[in-house]
Write a structure and sequence with these properties.
With 382 residues, this protein is of the alpha/beta class. The chain is built from 14 helices and twelve strands.
């Protein structure tokens, strides 16, 4: 196959999978806006029967992400949280899961308010040593983010994979922040890769999606059955938008990383800033691990300012950067985790993780670095 000859990730982003679904020579993948497909005869199928099960546009997207992540198969969902919800259907009452201590608030909300109600228990840990210590006879999986949201902690994927492999557990890695352009968890030992495709994969803040990429075909088959049964499938039009976004993924994240590093360096010298969390700074505690397991540091920065009044002033004063939830798009967005992404985490747990009224999270977009720095400077009064 031609795809086997394509080695560079940038080329894979543009070319996608090699399967084509029409005979017109269309360069852009068609949007197959059909809920159902006719059968050629009794007991016969074109390979597509009903779009909740599969649709040609969605299949193209899934094959593309499978190639990018190096998995066996991908299942696309209507949102990142729909993907997490489907993931949890792999488990049964009485099962135990170890998850990252610093976790996206929406994932934590689903675990604590939905999954625990359904009989699944959780422990939260940070380092590979803590993860190993948290495993019990009932543990079925380890779910990690790296870097974590919003404290940008780095987890050694290969070290955790060794633990899960020895214990016969699934390892799930949320790769939303770094994308397959910078990090490929399956190559490091992960069994399932999770994406909020809403973020960098789509890249334009214009659609929601979620992805689960499985290393093993049997696991992928279970996930596809769950997706078909529970119904949170990605629509043909949204699949098209994510395909379009992936075409520019490599050039976007490379530009965003370059700008993020410039901003992070500037923030470290600003008198109103007391702490910068960016994994591309050599002083970051996870820098060496990140440099070893990833080829880039991404475009996400968290930083703590000296006082809640300053944080509020920044949020209300930025002009180029927009105060909004989400991340990974062309537009730079600044978020207040305490009130937005992590609002439902109990206060004591938030504060223990450093998510307080002084913490801001910045998703660096494609604007000029000098303009973003000037905007932060005027917002902070310096």
């Amino acid at each position: 196959m031609e795809s086997e000859l394509i080695m560079d990730i940038s080329t894979l982003c543009v070319r996608g999978c090699e399967k084509r679904y029409d005979t017109t020579g269309a360069v852009a993948v068609p949007i197959f806006a059909s809920a159902t497909f006719a059968h050629p005869g009794v007991g016969q199928s074109t390979g597509f029967d009903y779009s909740r099960s599969q649709n040609p546009t969605k299949e193209y997207l899934e094959h593309t992400l499978t190639a990018l992540e190096g998995g066996a198969e991908t299942v696309a969902f209507s949102s990142g949280m729909a993907a997490v919800g489907a993931l949890m259907e792999l488990f049964s009452p009485g099962d135990h899961i170890v998850a990252s201590d610093d976790l996206y608030g929406g994932t934590y909300r689903l675990f604590s308010q939905i999954s625990e109600k359904n009989g699944i228990t959780f422990s939260y840990a940070d380092t590979p040593q803590e993860i190993a210590a948290a495993i019990t006879p009932a543990t079925k999986a380890v779910i990690i983010e790296t870097p974590t949201n919003p404290m940008m902690r780095v987890v050694d994927i290969a070290a955790v994979a060794q633990i899960t492999r020895e214990r016969g557990l699934l390892l799930v890695v949320d790769n939303t922040f770094l994308t397959p352009v910078f990090q490929r968890p399956i190559a490091l030992g992960a069994d399932i890769v999770l994406h909020s495709g809403t973020k960098y994969l789509g890249g334009h803040n214009d659609t929601l999606s979620g992805m689960l990429v499985a290393k093993d075909a049997a696991v992928a088959e279970r996930l596809r059955y769950i997706a078909k049964t529970t119904g949170a499938c990605l629509s043909p039009f949204d699949s098209f938008l994510i395909i379009r976004g992936i075409k520019t993924l490599a050039v976007r994240v490379e530009r965003q990383e370059k700008t993020a590093l410039a901003i992070a360096r500037w923030l470290t010298g600003h008198p109103a800033v007391k702490k910068v969390y960016y994994i591309g700074l050599p002083e970051h505690p996870g820098y060496e691990i990140s440099a070893r397991q990833a080829s880039g540091f991404g475009g996400m920065i968290s930083f703590a300012v000296k006082g809640e009044q300053t944080a509020v002033k920044v949020l209300e004063s930025v002009r180029v950067i927009q105060y909004a939830e989400s991340l990974g798009g062309t537009d730079s967005l600044i978020t207040y985790p305490m009130l937005q992404t992590h609002a439902e985490i109990p206060e004591s747990e938030r504060l223990a993780r450093g998510i307080d009224g002084c913490l801001l999270r910045l998703s660096v977009g494609l604007e000029a670095a000098d303009d973003l720095i000037a905007d932060l400077g005027q917002a902070m009064g310096g």
